Amino acid sequence: MKKILLNIIYLYLRLAAAAYCQEIPIFPSHELEKYPLHTQLHKALQKPNEVLRLDLSQQQLKKIPPEVFLFPNLQELNLSENQISELPPTISQLKNLRYLNLYKNKLRTIPAEIVELRKLEVLLLGKNRIELLPSSIRGLKKLVYLDVSGNNLSTYEIDYLYKHLPNCTIRH
């Protein structure tokens, strides 16, 4: 049920983001859904340039497989409900990423390189162990939805988000 609700929220936010960020060509949610949702990394690697959507949720991953960074056109990455404890700085290689779901992992920090994801619209970091976010997060100007609920962020951190991401809906 949670996954269905998250998908509905995601679709709504993609439509809102499309209206808000018209200068960036993005697929409307119904068009992006026409592309396959890859759930098996080895099959996705057969045609890495054609992979736009990758779902590696609920696979007991302890770290992000390095192969994930071989998809130059990836727009949607779901790594929710794993055991990932670190988001590597190489996340910055996914320049076309618009949706990143890291919900319910074991993350403690987010690298400053997250700011390199300039097209990112939706970032789901809920139910991790994050205590501090990098100040560079304010550089995510296209972000329309950020979920940081269920973490250990201070009131100061939450206030910082509201101040520096005024066009973003923040769930905390």
Number of domains as seen in the coordinates: 1
The shape is globular
The helix count comes to 4
| Major beta-sheet overview | 7 strands, parallel
Helix share of residues?
A: 10-25%
How large is the radius of gyration?
15 Å
Strands in their spatial order, largest beta sheet = 1-2-3-4-5-6-7
Based on DSSP secondary structure assignment, what is the total number of beta strands? Answer: 7
Termini Cα gap: 20 Å
CATH homologous superfamily classification:
Ribonuclease Inhibitor
CATH topology: Leucine-rich repeat, LRR (right-handed beta-alpha superhelix)
**Unreliable runs:** 4-25
Q: Supply the CATH architecture.
A: Alpha-Beta Horseshoe
Identify the CATH class. Answer: Alpha Beta
> In terms of quaternary structure, what is this?
single chain
User: Structural class of the secondary structure composition?
Assistant: alpha/beta
Order of helices and strands: HHEHEEEEEHE
How large a portion of the residues is in β-strands, by DSSP E? 5-15%
Mean pLDDT: 87
Explain what the structure shows:
- The chain is of the alpha/beta class.
- The chain has a single domain (2-171), classed as Alpha-Beta Horseshoe (Leucine-rich repeat, LRR (right-handed beta-alpha superhelix)).
- The chain is 22% helix and 12% strand.
- The longest helix is centred in the N-terminal third of the chain and has 19 residues, at 2-20.
- The radius of gyration is 15 Å and the shape is globular.
- The model is unreliable at 4-25 (pLDDT under 50).
